[in-house]
């Protein structure tokens, strides 16, 4: 019996292969930023340029009919550039952020994050929403909105259409929160500390939290921002946890297993990579440097704010990556998912909001 013909090893794309799709992703990102800057301040804070990049990418990718030579660069923009952005994001997080609002509020944030992730998975199972999409919706609600979604997606092996759906769901409910939370807060006669804690713990993206908090009062905005930054600072923990939980599924899909006779060190290193990808380790290393004051010392010596530079370039790369997601996502695939993911997102957002309010009523808000 003849042995089966081995599958050809896929050719690694060259710079020439990558350039067309990467250039298109950059152009879509620039167009999204230009449109976002032209929007009124209130609408711009609620919507964000990321969702504009995804929407523009979806529009172009599903109407123009892009030639196949754009595919390698679009894929590169989402996979490679996004990983670099995640590493750079580590420079914006520190343990000092977590300590700033006190142990009581930190415990509340951990409880709410856990509730959001568990609720998303339970509701996803109940409604038949794919597990990875449920995870992305839960992470977006639990941690820091779209940044957490795009950071978690490569760790769990999410598909482009799942990322697009999760970003759209997260943006929709975060935008509604910007307008509804101040109205509800006034109706419930919440004081500034209570409202700030509620907004910081239950609204999704950082820009949406800031807009919601300061729409209520300056004190509420300050507290909301502090609580939200604590959620952001815990993103690394969530990403590592997701990597560990999805390790077996990723290993089975990718066929990655230690070679027979491999040394214990090689086997251990492969298992570490499967559980915690290298870019996540880079994120944690950058956060450790920020927490230890190393980046601050380097900033002083170089006369630049390195953490601010890292944040700027991370946002730029994320915008390009999400433009690539939109360009590579087919609306037909999103249609097949139906409205169930939106129902899951709504239920998770409502559950987190209600639990947060109950916690504030029973335990009290974060310190001002």
**By helix and strand content, what is the structural category?**
mainly alpha
Mean pLDDT: 80
Number of domains: 1
Shape: globular
Q: Could you describe the largest sheet, including whether it forms a barrel? A: none
Order of helical and strand elements: HHHHHHHHHHHHHHHHHHHH
Q: Regions with pLDDT < 50 over 5+ consecutive residues?
A: 1-9, 266-270
Proportion of residues in β-strands: under 5%
Q: Count the strands?
A: 0
Which percent bin holds the helix content? over 70%
Whole-Å distance between the termini?
Answer: 76 Å
Individual helix count: 20
Task: Report on the architecture of this protein.
The protein is mainly α and 368 residues long. The protein has one domain. It contains 20 helices and no strands. Helix 6 runs antiparallel to helix 7 (131-142), helix 9 runs parallel beside helix 11 and helix 9 (160-187) packs across helix 18 (306-328). The model is unreliable at 1-9 and 266-270 (pLDDT under 50).
Summed up:
The chain has 368 residues and is mainly alpha-helical.
Secondary-structure blueprint:
Layout: H1 15-38, H2 41-47, H3 49-63, H4 71-89, H5 95-100, H6 103-127, H7 131-142, H8 146-156, H9 160-187, H10 192-202, H11 206-216, H12 218-233, H13 235-245, H14 247-254, H15 264-275, H16 278-291, H17 294-302, H18 306-328, H19 331-337, H20 340-363
Helix pairs in contact: 1-3, 1-4, 1-18, 2-11, 3-18, 4-16, 4-18, 6-7, 6-20, 7-8, 7-9, 7-20, 8-9, 8-13, 9-11, 9-18, 9-20, 10-11, 10-12, 10-20, 11-12
